[in-house]
Amino acid sequence: MEKGAEPVRDIVMKRLELAIESIILASRWLLVVFYLGLALALAVYAASFAKKLYEFVTKVLVLEDTDTILKMLGLIDAALVASLVVMVIISGYENFVSRFDEHEGEVHWLGTIDVGSLKIKVASTIVAISSIHLLQVFLNNTGYTSQQLMWLTLMHLAFVISALMLAWIDRITALGKGKKGADQPHL
Question: Alpha-carbon distance 45 to 34, whole Å?
């Protein structure tokens, strides 16, 4: 092999490596399609919420107490789902695509939710949604068999345990990071 061929090959390989890394980093912008899709789905869900709200308002005077509570729980459930979608859109964009520049003063938590915190918030919201759904089922339990009630309760408990495990793992990770930082020599 010629003496000058090796440095040329190294330069070519380094340029190829940089090109591949640039393509991989640029691929994060493909996530924008998903976040815009979620925003569109949220708009459709808002229309569905408006319909439920209209039906509730027009029938509120003739509904029994239990039915009123069930309808309100349905609206709360929808609000939690919508909040979850917004949280995923904003946090996902902020963590994986790009930081928001001009809007940080408008949304106080912008930039403070990392991936671990997002997982815990999502899990907590899912537990809240599941709790509301289970409450709706219990208030309307005549439409369910004992076995269905048992399975719905077990599924809810699985969500609760999952959320607790995620929080526990996040806590252990945070403690590990704190200990690692404390072990580092101060310059």
Answer: 16
